[in-house]
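Hi R.,

Here are the chain sequences for the assembly we discussed:
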Amino acid sequence: MLFSSVPFLYYFLPCVFAVYFLVPMRWKNAVLLLASLFFYAWGEPKFIVFMLVSIVQGYAFGRLVEKYQADRRRARLFLTLSVIFSLGLLGYCKYADFFLSGFNALTGLRLPLLHVALPIGISFYTFQILSYVVDVYRGEVEAQRNFIDLAAYVAMFPQLIAGPIVRYADIAAQLEQRTHTLSDIAAGARRFVLGLGKKVLLANVFFELITAFKASSDRSVLFYWLYAVACVLNIYFDFSGYSDMAISLGRIFGFRYLENFDYPYISASITEFWRRWHMSLGSWFRDYVYIPLGGNRVSKAKWLRNILVVWLLTGLWHGAAWNFVLWGLFFAVFLTAEKLWYGRALAKTHILKHLYVLLLVIVSFVLFDAASVRGAVSTIGGLFGAAGVSAVDPASLYYLRSFAAVLLVGIVGATPLPKRAVEKLCATRAGSVAVALLEPLALVVILAVSTGYLVDGSFNPFLYFRF
Amino acid sequence: MNKKLKNIVTVALLAAFLFGFGAWAALKPADALSFSERRKLKQRPTISVSSVLSGKFMSDFEDYALDQFPLRDEWRTLKALNSLYVYRQKDNNGVYLADGYAAKLEYPLNENSVAHAAERFRFLYESYLKESGSKVYLSVIPDKNYFLAEANGYPAIDYKALVTSLREQTDFAQYIDLFGELSLEDYYHTDSHWRQEKLPAVASYLARQMGVTLTDEYTEQMLERPYYGVYYGYAALPMQPDELRYLTSETLESCTVYNYETDKTGAVYDMQKAKGNDLYEVFLSGPISLLTIENPNAESERELIVFRDSFASSLAPLLAEGYAKITLADIRYLPAVQMGKLLDFHGQDVLFLYSAAVLNNSDTLK
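And here is the predicted structure of the full complex:
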């Protein structure tokens, strides 16, 4: 079920809110678990078994790891078994055909592909279970004794299928005891509507431009750039909109999830970009791959290896295809180069550092969005007028005129400017009163217009569902 | 307003919205039809173990929830207004408004589609017409974009290239150029089609090119109900409906129409359709794969076969005066390969009459 869908907003959510806030605290996790299982089964009725089995193994191995905490060899064995199970399932579902086709291409054999359907959200819940068992092994958290509480943590519908990746350590205490306040519920509701608006009123509209570009055989340099900018904005508003909705729903239910985006497009370096983009994934790889490999406190060769491994895995996490592998390595190259060569010099520039980040991010997301590496190369070439592409054509001029306003809204909306403007307004008495009066109405308008877009049946699926 | 009050108002308003429309959606009786979209609306799906396990129940329910959401048309209008007047987008769902007309973007020229249409026409020619002694004609009907698009800053297909390409691939047919015979006023404001009451001169010109003279005078009639064309539903914007007028004459009143699908004979204008969703179906009962118009008072035994799309439904009756029998065949619904089983080709005039929009999206031609 999609957050930005009529069944979720007007059937599922009111029912869950009503039941959740009516039952006493001791039943709330069970209500969330049941609601989450229903939510997951709505989209993936058969694959719910994969998730339940993963939760059971995470629960069992977490308990075993804790039980044998004093016997490190045995604890490590149970940890290893859990990791093998988690990664084995993820590997089978997500990467089997990728590796089989690679093997076939290398050897000339024709091993049949498995054509396994990818269960929604498996990358997210697998990483949550992995981090939980590892944290228990490290002694950073206690194993959860209550199966319902652990299952509610893993399956919690706000973050189940597109993140953010929530660490058990961050919400362990809230699973036991949490408060529900009016200010939290209001803040959650406010952010949920804004997230919905980001997804429905911006990301989906940018996707229309992407679709028009892909459907067109007449492409000019202008059209390539329109596509690339739409791509960058679409991915940001799609994913950050979803994260906003996830974090805000968590807050309504009394949980505090960590932030996942912090205006990444204002970054002054690729290093900073990855501190602001999909923060929960970046910190996961840092804490569970990069640092265990030695981080940067090793020889230069090993440090380079560590970076390479992390970004190879980051690329692969996003999808079992070569363009995702290259996408990850693309960032590895520039992150390394910034650290080794020009990072300090770049920081001293004013405009150049932002243009540098934006150009690289645009190229990276064209690669990310491409159906194949060849397609990505062709599109990136088109951005720079390769193959004699004309500068403009009637279609690109039309789409520029048609999408100019919404692109401008998107570009400004991807910066902290609107937030700062509201804060500045609120600093004055009159402005504060105006914002207080208009904000609830503006939220209703955003919800209403979003509903209009949903009822009209615009394109909707979230990009990150495929991960 | 203090912070607590603001929070209360925010939560109350949003909760009222979600719970209010949620309850309304759950309790509202399902509508059978959408008048503006001219289609049946999804009904609440029945639940079963197999439909749940296959996911069919869920996808059907999502369709149902969208179709039956309270105030559906108003929500769609809200979206259209936001697209056009807040985002300043030039079209909504591919439909744009210009000079008081709604039109659907048709761009770019699809050469493969034109080639497919030409291949289908050639198949008909080679299979049935080549040895029959028929005179074969071809004509392309410009869609509204021809008159509206470029003048209003919208991309349009290269009509000259379309016609040239089609003609080059159908050298067996004599081309009749209708582009100069039509203007924007000959089309409905809210629909893709042309207006029959504007077509007598076009019909005379077409007939003349095929060696037939038309002299009939017509009386204009009008349906009582307003005509909301297909773009009215697409655009979801408040637009004035059209009036649907049709032409009558003694010749047309004496003509009979035989419908191969229903095996029934009726009149040129199907007044049952005047009660339906699409009033344009009054003309020859709408999308029928094969039918004939017989004119008992024709002055000659001359016959015409028209391979056509829906534009011919309103035009063909105006040609009836010049022919004893007109056959209208639509290869979107009846594959070309089956025509020989149903029709006898014996030297009739043959006209391929297609709109530019269908030629540019010809994958429906079988």
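Chain A has two domains: 6-178, 184-466. Chain A is about 75% helix and 0% strand.

Let me know if anything looks off.

Best,
T.
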